């Protein structure tokens, strides 16, 4: 681990946790100070600021979240790794929105904690301190809580302060443009323009003009001088979306512009120089494109300086509850309508779907459901795909003995339905309606559920016997 002399402060009211974390970090050569409360930490002498703070949420007196807000008002900003036994989605959201570097739950994985501390120290040393505006921009634009999301945020925070070329790869709808905007927001070029070029939408004969501009009279229709996208992005960031769509015969000119930061307008001999940071994105496998002779190898290696992969939504199911809540609130504001209610059953339905269109499809589904909900409960009508359909049972042989039954009798179905309903009612304390009630968990209307309870003759006294 780097940063051998770095100071890490551990704040936790559980002495066994403090000692465990201290031993783990000291074994890696780090200096460690431990405190039993937020007040004890704030009372420490004003000396060397810690390179990282490992912080519990539930503390006596001032809570971990309150301490985080207190520290965020001062400079330099201290990267915080939350380590708590009281983790839930809403708490994680609050912590990360306030700028937390990581949020881990107890019992913690030692390797995961060490990685989080190391990454925070590296970010502080090489990536600079994140300002309040930077942390706010990240949390408000890129939403998630899972491991893939945390890795993405770390990569963005590391590469954004540099001028290195970034290659963003991911399926359609995963949010590659959002990542490009985030990199620009957190860079030293944020006061200048972010110029986006959709390479897939440019006619082949206009690529040069679009990238580099043209002089008056350079071709039919060129009635005046025109600045290209490279010049428009001078001092800022040029985002080339769908870079894999650029025709092979034009890729050499793009390579020269990227390498030398100079070019000529179409129909002009004067060489122009620009200062731009280049970020590119693609949903193609560029290595396969190179192997197939459709993409220049030298251009690929010029672009592949800092690759960032954006995971598909099906691999980020733990992020779906937070994304759904984010889109519900955002769409309600955009549509100026009453915010509909997102139920636990609805979230489970969203997590069960495989999302071929990724986050873009999720937003569209929630927008449609918001329109139909009219301020009430959101209901999601998602297609059932072949991948989701349960496998059909194998045909039963006439001679097969002790085989599993193909079907259940009506009494068996009723018994299982009754047992399932009793389990849900016990779980909710016989709360039928409202948030986290039995009707919400089962995905049915409260009136329908009450009717079923009466029909089955269930009673609370029966459940307690």
Question: Briefly, what is this?
Answer:
With 465 residues, this protein is an alpha/beta fold. Helix content is 43%, strand content 12%. The strands form four sheets. It has a five-stranded parallel sheet, with helices on both faces. The protein has a five-stranded parallel sheet with strand order 7-10-13-6-14. A two-stranded antiparallel ribbon has the order 8-9.
List the helices and strands and how they pair.
Elements: E1 7-11, H1 15-26, E2 31-35, H2 38-42, E3 52-55, H3 64-72, E4 80-84, H4 89-97, E5 102-105, H5 110-127, H6 132-141, H7 147-159, E6 166-169, H8 176-185, E7 194-198, H9 207-212, E8 213-214, E9 226-227, H10 229-232, E10 237-241, H11 251-260, E11 262-264, E12 271-273, E13 277-282, H12 286-291, H13 297-303, E14 306-309, H14 320-335, H15 344-352, H16 358-373, H17 410-427, H18 438-442, H19 446-456, H20 460-464
Parallel strand pairs: 1-2, 1-3, 3-4, 4-5, 6-13, 6-14, 7-10, 10-13
Antiparallel strand pairs: 8-9, 11-12
Helix pairs in contact: 5-7, 14-16
Structure description:
- It holds the Pfam family AAA_lid_14.
- It comes from Roseimicrobium gellanilyticum.
- One of its GO terms (molecular function) is ATP binding.
- Residues 142-371 form the Sigma-54 factor interaction domain.
- There is one protein chain.
- By secondary structure, the chain is an alpha/beta fold.
- The chain folds into four domains: 7-157, Response regulator (Rossmann fold, 3-Layer(aba) Sandwich), CATH 3.40.50.2300; 166-311, Rossmann fold (3-Layer(aba) Sandwich); 314-373, Helicase, Ruva Protein, domain 3; 410-464.
- It contains 20 helices and 14 strands.
- The protein has a five-stranded parallel sheet with strand order 2-1-3-4-5, sandwiched between helices.
- Strand 3, helix 3 (64-72) and strand 4 form a beta-alpha-beta unit.
- Helix 5 (110-127) packs parallel to helix 7 (147-159) and helix 14 crosses helix 16 (358-373).
- The termini are far apart.
- Mean pLDDT is 81; it is low at 126-139 and 386-403.
């Amino acid at each position: 681990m780097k940063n051998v002399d770095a100071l890490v402060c551990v704040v936790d009211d559980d002495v066994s946790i403090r000692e465990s974390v201290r031993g783990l970090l000291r074994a890696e050569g780090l200096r460690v100070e431990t405190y039993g409360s937020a007040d004890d930490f704030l009372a420490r002498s004003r000396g060397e600021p810690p390179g990282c703070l490992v912080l519990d949420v539930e503390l006596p007196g001032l809570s971990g979240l309150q301490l985080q807000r207190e520290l965020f008002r001062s400079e330099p900003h201290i990267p915080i790794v939350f380590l708590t036994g009281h983790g839930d989605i809403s708490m994680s959201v609050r912590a990360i929105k306030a700028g937390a570097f990581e949020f881990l739950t107890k019992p913690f994985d030692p390797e995961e904690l060490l990685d989080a501390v190391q990454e925070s120290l590296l970010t502080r040393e090489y990536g600079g301190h994140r300002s309040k505006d930077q942390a706010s921009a990240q949390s408000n634009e890129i939403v998630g809580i899972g491991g893939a999301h945390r890795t993405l945020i770390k990569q963005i925070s590391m590469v954004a302060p540099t001028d290195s070329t970034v290659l963003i790869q991911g399926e359609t709808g995963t949010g590659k443009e959002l990542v490009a905007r985030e990199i620009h927001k957190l860079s030293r070029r944020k006061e200048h323009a972010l110029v986006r070029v959709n390479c897939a939408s440019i006619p082949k004969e206009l690529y040069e003009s679009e990238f580099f501009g043209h002089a008056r009279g350079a071709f039919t229709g060129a009635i005046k001088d025109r600045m290209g996208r490279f010049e428009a992005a001078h001092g800022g960031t040029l985002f080339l979306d769908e870079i894999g769509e650029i025709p092979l015969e034009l890729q050499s000119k793009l390579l020269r512009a990227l390498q030398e930061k100079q070019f000529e307008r179409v129909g002009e001999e004067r060489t122009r120089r620009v200062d731009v940071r280049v970020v590119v994105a693609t949903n193609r496998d560029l290595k396969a494109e190179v192997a197939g002779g459709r993409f220049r190898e030298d251009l690929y290696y010029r672009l592949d300086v800092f690759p960032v992969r954006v995971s598909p939504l099906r691999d980020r199911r733990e992020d779906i509850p937070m994304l759904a809540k984010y889109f519900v609130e955002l769409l309600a504001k955009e549509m100026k309508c009453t915010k509909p209610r997102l139920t636990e059953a609805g979230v489970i339905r969203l997590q069960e779907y495989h999302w071929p269109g990724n986050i873009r499809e999720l937003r569209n589904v929630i927008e449609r459901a918001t329109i139909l909900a009219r301020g009430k409960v959101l209901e999601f009508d998602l297609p059932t795909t072949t991948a989701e359909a349960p496998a059909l049972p194998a045909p039963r042989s006439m001679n097969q003995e002790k085989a599993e039954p193909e079907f259940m009798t009506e009494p068996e179905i009723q018994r299982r339905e009754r047992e399932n309903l009793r389990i849900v009612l016990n779980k909710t304390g016989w709360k039928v309606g409202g948030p986290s009630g039995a009707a919400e968990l089962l995905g049915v209307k409260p009136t329908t559920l009450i009717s079923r309870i009466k029909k089955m003759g269930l009673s609370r006294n029966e459940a307690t016997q």
